[in-house]
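WARN retry 2 of 3 for item q-0093 after timeout on previous attempt; input resubmitted unchanged.
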Amino acid sequence: HPNTPLEMLEKWARYEDASLRRGAARNDMTPPRLLRRLARDKDTGVRKGAASNPSAPAALLKQLADEELARVRGMVAGNPSTSAEVLEHLAHDESLKVRQEVAGNSSAPPGALKQLMADEYSAVRQAAASNLFDSVEVLERFGGDTDKLVRCVAQRRLRQRRAVAGCLAQLQGVAGRLDSLVRAFEESRKEAAGPQ
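OK item q-0093 returned
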């Protein structure tokens, strides 16, 4: 809970019960010094909590990206606060789940996503296609993927992208017409007022 007092988080971080330490590790209000300690916890769930915490410092996420367990690296890969440099590194991870998390991360840099578009596993390509909604060129490329689900996701995103572009074009047209009307109204008002 975001309103958990710091004293309570400090107590939870020291408890023998791992579920309380996990709660402290996942809490956005846990200070970096406690997160650093929790990231070294013997319990995997506690380390995963610290790795998924959007308030985790960049240096801690970089450290956890080299964790032995893929489950912890996967939490770093899915964390929107993870740096582009770390996500680029994790895009090469041996674990399918870690690469899939990078591909689905809204903070993933274009270079990592470009690499993951060519991943051997369709689940990774599907996550990348879901994440790449800005690039028509990339979505068109995914539209020809060998995996049906990847193609469907890419085609749906492409339709959405084109629909948004169409709406924006219409709005720009309406804005232009409104601007003309406002100018015409101002001109007629000046004319009606006569010379001053």
